[in-house]
UniProtKB/TrEMBL annotation:
Catalytic activity: L-histidine = trans-urocanate + NH4(+)
Annotated source species: Staphylococcus gallinarum
Keyword Lyase: yes
Pfam families xref list: Lyase_aromatic
Keyword Signal: no
Primary location class: cytoplasm
Taxonomic lineage: Bacteria, Bacillati, Bacillota, Bacilli, Bacillales
Family to which the UniProt record says this protein belongs: Belongs to the PAL/histidase family.
Locations listed in the record: Cytoplasm
Gene3D superfamilies assigned: Fumarase/aspartase (Central domain) (1.20.200.10), Fumarase/aspartase (N-terminal domain) (1.10.275.10)
Protein name stated in the entry: Histidine ammonia-lyase
Domain of life the protein comes from: Bacteria
Residues carrying 2,3-didehydroalanine (Ser): 143
Enzyme class: lyase
Listed transmembrane segments: none
Length: 500
């Protein structure tokens, strides 16, 4: 299939399908026309020798330095080379690919002055999966994601490293192999490539896709625990949740009842106990609140995915053309959203760890063996899996500290407030990976616990999940290296984010 880009209509669902189906992109005729019009404005500025930031002047504190006419293009190349000082491990290939997709989409809005050549270079790289190697660290998230996006731009001009056919190679090598020319940057184009929030937003999109999937997965995982502990279904009754007014809470309660429909292991209030602990009874309230966070984050990411966040911006008003220096590159709205995402996902892990603790604790697990050990004493069973989950939950509490409350001035105090949104995005993804492993541990322990109870009494829907998971994680008949099981189940959960 082909993903059509307009500059205005891209959704997270589009990106998820694009990644799942290895789609190609194409640009609408109307978007091409906007690109041509905004480029004509840049050419007029050059012809009229106007003083416009980033086109005929330097950058940042050098915005008052006039550039000689014959050096406009070199200015853009110098910008990319000097700003490509990213640090640390690279973003995943998916994030870098989405970064190119988002940068292309914002250029198509027609406010950046890019050439058609630049648009077509991005399309060529995306469609041939020539993916820039982009270090994760080094962005303040305010003047755009300058360092990460400079590494993206380097690849387009044949000077950076890329992933191609599963290998990391020099971009010049790939261009020669495919008989394709490197991009020759024109006036304004270097700036048009790196002013923007595409690094934090791309990582945010990937994080959202995986976090949303994890939130849904947490429900069937919790359903195993609920049945293993003979949980009470009355707490999920729709009457309880309608009077609270939160739609997401109502939906979680409805889905939990669906997962548990037909189970012979669930109970009603008063049969064994009157009330369950909060980690079972309040699943709709707790998980529902995380879905509220996800809905907020999705809205803000999709706004930004279709935004013009370059500087300066070009506006064709018919009888006049405006070129305005503003601050749409500032990542504060995205930074807040991604810090919020960290809280929502952290709590999914937090409550999961408390549930799995109930499964392994002989004082709380309704007669199940201590730590679900096949031979308590001789074999430790799931004892240390709970330790590992607790460690990840604790680490998440540190990572959940909001990056957006920090700011350090840059460019000799010209850029005196920054968002740190890219740090929020990176820490957010670490939290998601940690939470996924916590939920994988709950799933492994939940599977074992319901075996002790009788899998034939499981609800039909969770019975099907049980059979699927048992092909990935065998029953615990003796102590083994459980980290392999944790990683295998976590990988299953991650893969499902793109395949379901």
């Amino acid at each position: 299939m082909t993903l059509q880009l307009t500059g205005d209509t891209l959704t997270i669902s589009d990106i998820k399908q694009f990644l799942s189906d290895e789609d190609k992109v194409e640009v609408t005729a109307a978007a091409y026309e906007r690109v041509k019009q905004s480029r004509a404005t840049v050419e007029d500025i050059i012809a009229n020798k106007e003083t416009i930031y980033g086109i005929t002047t330097g950058f940042g504190l050098f915005s008052d330095v006039r550039i000689d006419e014959g050096e406009y293009n070199q200015l853009q190349v110098n910008l990319i080379r000097s700003h490509a000082c990213g640090i640390g491990k690279p973003f995943s290939e998916e994030v870098s690919l989405v970064m190119m997709l988002l940068r292309l989409n914002t250029l198509l809005k027609g406010h950046s002055g890019a050439t058609v050549d630049l648009i077509e270079q991005l399309i060529f790289y995306i469609n041939n999966r020539i993916i820039p190697v982009i270090p994760q660290q080094g962005s303040l998230g305010a003047s755009g994601d300058l360092a990460p996006l400079s590494h993206l731009a380097l690849a387009l001009i044949g000077e950076g490293s890329v992933y191609f056919n599963g290998e990391e190679v020099d971009s010049r090598y790939v261009l020669n192999k495919l008989n394709h020319q490197s991009l020759q940057l024109q006036a304004k184009e270097g700036l048009a490539l790196i002013n923007g929030t595409q690094a934090m937003t791309a990582q945010g999109v990937i994080s959202y896709i995986e976090a949303e999937s994890l939130a849904y997965q947490s429900e069937w995982i919790a359903a195993f625990t609920h049945q293993a502990l003979n949980g009470i279904v009355d707490a999920y009754n729709e009457h309880v949740h309608k009077v609270r007014n939160f739609q997401e809470q109502m939906e979680v309660a409805e889905r939990m009842l669906d997962w548990l429909e037909g189970s012979e292991l669930t109970t009603r209030q008063g049969e064994i106990r009157v009330q369950d602990a909060y980690t079972l009874r309040c699943i709709p309230q707790i998980h529902g609140a995380s879905f509220q966070v996800l809905n907020y984050v999705k809205e803000k990411l999709e706004f930004e995915m279709n935004a013009a966040n370059d500087n300066p911006l070009i506006f064709d008003e018919g009888d006049e053309t405006l070129v305005i220096s503003g601050g749409n590159f500032h990542g504060q709205p995205v930074a807040f959203a991604l810090d919020f995402l960290k809280l929502g996902v952290s709590e999914l892990a937090n409550v999961s760890e408390r549930r799995l603790e109930r499964l392994v604790n002989p004082q709380l697990n309704n007669g199940l063996p201590a730590f679900l050990s096949p031979k308590p004493g001789l074999q430790s069973g799931a004892m240390i899996m709970q330790y590992a989950a607790a460690s990840l939950v604790s680490e998440n509490k540190t990572l959940a500290h909001p990056a957006s409350v920090d700011s350090i001035p840059s460019s000799a105090n010209q850029e005196d407030h920054v968002s740190m949104g890219t740090i929020a995005s990176r820490h957010g993804y670490q939290i998601i990976e940690n939470a996924r492993r916590v939920l994988a541990i709950e799933a492994i322990i939940g599977l074992q616990a319901v075996e002790y109870k009788d899998i034939d009494k499981l609800s039909p829907k969770t019975y099907d999940k049980f059979q699927t998971l048992r092909h990935i994680c065998p029953s615990i008949t003796e102590d083994r290296q459980f980290h392999k099981d944790i990683e295998a189940v976590a990988q299953y959960l991650r893969d499902a984010a793109y395949n379901e």
